[in-house]
Specification:
- The protein has three domains: 107 residues, Acyl-CoA dehydrogenase/oxidase, N-terminal domain (Butyryl-Coa Dehydrogenase, subunit A, domain 1, Orthogonal Bundle), CATH 1.10.540.10; 101 residues, Butyryl-CoA Dehydrogenase, subunit A, domain 2, CATH 2.40.110.10; 152 residues, Butyryl-CoA Dehydrogenase, subunit A, domain 3 (Up-down Bundle).
- The chain has 13 helices and eight strands.
């Protein structure tokens, strides 16, 4: 049987597959950190299991999971390792682009669903209008997982007659350009603390032709396939997808602390760490932070989904609250990890401690513009009756 034929068919199957793969992932944590990349054999296992095509259209052989089911799978992989979860989140998130591409192009890019797609939606590229498409040049940062990818996304501003082209709303016309990673120069820039294993290097292309059919209108594209997943607001779903990884990382940190507290006797103490009142309070606070943030995010995922499924467009306020839930998930996750990191004492300083890894990884996730603290302000503006202050909302 082919790899595609043996993949899980529903969310429960994918979650169970992630749990089964967790021991293998944990055994490779040292390699992931040292190489600043996921090991190729692990990538193949994940590709064969279908973890990079969670949002691939059913008409193309994909599972086309709901947003909530996608969240559950990525959360489980992030619980095993933050970098693994982040890479899966990125590539599986890009499989949603299959809903905006014609059949021939979608099959070229996504194949049997084992293809890795990487890149960024930050529009630092320039695309000059040319016959049949665009000539694209630019350099982009944060190309997570790009070393293992076959296709790359490079968001670009469209230029015509030596000037940026404007959309009907007056904002720059931006397109998500899809091009083969073989045409990309990868620049080794990813020397960081957190999410080190994601290999989120810079990349660039120069005067690369991209045909019109591989240029997707950024944030405003109309789906060519039916289904709630593709009709949902692009940027809202994108932000909520980002929030899945920190919650999984925080859960791993809490579990690591519980294990540590059962066996560690702090210096100068006569009882184990778990018997300290301060440790008990900290783990309680951490658990409350994660459970409440997770419940908030799930409620908004369901709300957006139900609205779109009913054929309605989510309101500005609804989208603002969804963005708020995503930012809160990241913020609460970092707060929870901080609590257990401090409660663990000197043990958490060592690279051999999973808590140390979770501390670095979760704070790296909160730096992403889609879930960074600035989103509280953006959402707050809307709740106060103002415009969001950004065209990408």
């Amino acid at each position: 049987m082919s790899a595609a034929g043996s993949r899980p068919k529903d969310a429960e199957g994918f979650v169970e597959a992630a749990r089964k793969l967790a021991p293998t992932i944990r055994a490779l944590r040292g390699d992931i950190e040292r190489e600043r990349s996921l090991p190729a054999p692990l990538v193949k296992q994940m590709a064969d299991a279908g973890f990079f095509s969670l949002w691939l259209a059913r008409t193309l052989g994909g599972p086309e999971l709901t947003t909530l089911d996608y969240f559950r799978v990525i959360e489980e992989l992030s619980r095993a390792d933050g970098a693994v979860g982040w890479c899966a989140m990125v590539s599986a998130g890009y499989s949603r682009l299959s809903g905006y591409l014609d059949d021939a192009v979608a099959r070229e890019v996504f194949g049997d669903g084992s293809t890795v797609v990487a890149g960024t939606i930050n529009p630092t590229g320039k695309a000059v209008v040319a016959p049949g498409g665009y000539r694209v040049s630019g350099r982009w940062s944060y190309g997570s997982f790009i070393q293992h990818s076959t296709w790359t996304v490079g968001s670009s501003v469209i230029f015509a007659n030596d000037a940026p082209r404007r959309g009907p709303d007056g904002a720059p016309d931006m397109r998500l350009m899809l091009f083969p990673t073989g045409a990309v120069e990868i620049i080794d820039t990813w020397r960081v603390g957190g999410l080190r294993g994601t290999g989120s290097h810079d990349f660039r292309v120069a005067d690369l032709f991209v045909p019109e059919e591989r240029a997707i209108a950024a944030f405003t594209a109309k789906p060519v396939r039916p289904g709630t997943l593709y009709a949902a607001p692009f940027i809202t779903v994108f932000a909520m997808a980002l929030a899945t990884a920190p919650l999984g990382i925080a859960r791993a940190a809490i579990e690591a602390f519980v294990e540590l507290a059962e066996g560690k006797t702090p210096v100068g103490a006569s009882s184990r760490l778990r018997d300290k009142a301060s440790a008990q309070a900290d783990i309680g606070k951490a658990e409350a932070l994660i459970r409440s943030a997770r419940a908030f995010l799930i409620a908004e995922l369901r709300g957006i989904w139900d609205t779109v499924a009913a054929g309605e467009t989510p309101s500005l306020r609804q989208r603002a609250v969804a963005r708020l839930a995503a930012a809160q998930a990241a913020s609460a996750s970092a707060q929870a990890v901080d609590l257990v990191y401090n409660a663990a004492g000197g043990t958490a300083l060592y690279e051999t401690s999973l808590i140390e890894r979770c501390f670095r990884d979760v704070h790296a996730t909160t730096q992403h513009v889609g879930i960074a603290s600035g989103n509280f302000e953006i959402s707050g503006r809307v709740l106060l009756g103002l415009d969001p202050g950004t065209p990408r909302f």
